[in-house]
Write a structure and sequence with these properties.
The protein contains 1 helix and no strands. The longest helix is centred in the middle third of the chain and has 51 residues. The chain is 78% helix and 0% strand. The radius of gyration is 28 Å and the shape is rod-shaped. It is mainly alpha-helical.
């Protein structure tokens, strides 16, 4: 068995694995950002829907002293 060829093969496999992990991390970061944007959009849409159904709620406060 050729030790030099084995060493090169293991080194190439390590580099390939590191590249795969880096790409996966980038994909996870992108997905995390998209999920945050989606959550924010859903919160905004929920508030808009609530206002359209009950536009008079939350506009005034009755206070008696």
């Amino acid at each position: 068995m050729d030790i030099a060829a084995l060493s090169m093969g293991l080194s190439q496999m390590k580099v390939s694995q590191q590249a795969s992990v880096s790409v996966m991390k980038m994909a996870m970061d992108t997905a995390k950002g998209q999920m945050a944007d989606l959550t924010q959009m859903m919160d905004t849409n929920t508030r808009v829907m609530e206002q359209s159904v009950n536009p008079h709620l939350g506009n005034t406060i009755d206070i008696k002293l």
